[in-house]
Each structure stands twice: as C-alpha cells, then as structure tokens.
TrEMBL record:
It comes from Geodermatophilus siccatus. This is ERCC4 domain-containing protein. It holds the Pfam family ERCC4. Gene3D superfamilies: 3.40.50.10130, 5' to 3' exonuclease, C-terminal subdomain (1.10.150.20). GO terms for biological process: DNA repair.
Length: 201
C-alpha cells in the first residue's frame, strides 16, 4: 500500500503474514521489497501474526499441516528484523488483520499531521521530574524555585554534573556568586551554615 501524505511525503506499507514473511525470504521477494521500500520517505513492514517458539528457541508447529512456519531460530528471526530496520524501514508486529488495518489508519493520521514536534518541545517546570528537583534541593543554596529553574534551563538533571560555573550563572536567579558556591558544593567543598543560608535567599 502506498500513499502520498503531506508533510511527510511518500508512505509505504508492506503487509506480510508470518508464513509469507519466511516464504518471501526463501524466494527473494523480501529482498526486493526492502530495496524498493528504502526509497520511500516512510516505509513500514507490518508483520501479521506471531511465531510461537519452543524452549530451544525454534519455531513450533502451527496451522493445519502441523509443521513449523520456519526452521529458523528466534535469534536469526530477530537479526532479520534488525537488518530490515537498519535499512530505515519501521517494523510493526500485529496479531491479526484488524491490527494491520488499525496500524495503517493510525499511520495515515500521523503522516497527515501538520507538525510532528512532540519530542522537540522543552519541558516546563510543571512537568519537571520530582526526583531531579529533590536532588537539587539537597544541594547548598538551592530551594524549590531555583531547582525548578535549573531543571527547566538544562532540560533535566544530568547524571554526571558537567555544567560550568558560567553556564550555571546563566540560569535566572543564580548569578556568579551563587554559581561559584554551587560548583564548590558539587565538588565536595561545602559552604558553612551561614553561607548556605545567605545563598538561598
């Protein structure tokens, strides 16, 4: 299925049942499909159904024939999917044809949106991570408001503190003196009780 939707462009969906997926590997159709889909702006391979794996990791018998859909090992199947993804093709697994229809409709709605900027938005203080705020408030001279400003300014709390005094001073309400004290605190040189009290004001 191929459709052209602005602003995304050419979107293609290739649907394969699990049995057809493995048959198309053997006869070369999958290679040709992946090659053609790589030229699209958005390409999605929808795999319908699932392979049941035995304890050794091989496909279990399915369907009326009682034969496994493939003799592949689960690790080889995963590697196949990684190879498809490496070509820029999204892989979506669905349980049945209804899942395929729902996926195509959802993709069409998404592709037709004017913007796709959800992941580009900066989080505000209201959505700040409570744990990050808590950690910051445990540092000398940092109260709730200042902790919120720091999280907003740096878009979170880094695991390893790599912020310079100059960068800290750029956060509204910190300034060079408080930035120096905060840097010293993070380096293990703690201010005394009087200095900490003055820094919080």
């Amino acid at each position: 299925m191929l459709f052209d939707v602005r602003p995304v462009g050419r979107v293609g969906v290739q649907r394969k049942t699990v049995a057809d997926l493995f048959a198309s590997i053997r006869d070369g159709r999958l290679t040709r499909s992946v090659s053609a889909m790589s030229a699209l702006d958005v390409a999605v391979l929808v795999i319908e159904g699932e392979v049941r794996w035995n304890a050794e990791g091989f496909a279990e018998p399915t369907g009326p024939t009682g034969r496994p859909v493939t003799s592949w090992h689960r690790d080889a199947y995963r590697s196949l999917l990684w190879s498809v993804r490496a070509r820029g093709i999204w892989v979506e697994a669905v349980p049945d044809v209804d899942g395929t229809v729902a996926t195509v409709l959802s993709l069409h709605r998404w592709a037709g949106k004017a913007t796709h900027d959800t992941l580009d938005r900066r989080p505000g203080r209201r959505g700040a991570d409570p744990a990050a705020l808590h950690v910051l408030q445990g540092l000398a001279g940092i109260g709730p408001r200042l902790a919120g400003r720091i999280v907003e300014h740096f878009q979170g709390l880094p695991i390893a503190w790599t912020v310079t005094e100059r960068e800290l001073a750029a956060v509204p309400g910190i300034g060079p003196v408080r930035a120096k004290r905060l840097s010293e605190s993070l380096a293990g040189r703690h201010c005394d009780r009087d200095e900490c009290g003055r820094a919080e004001r």
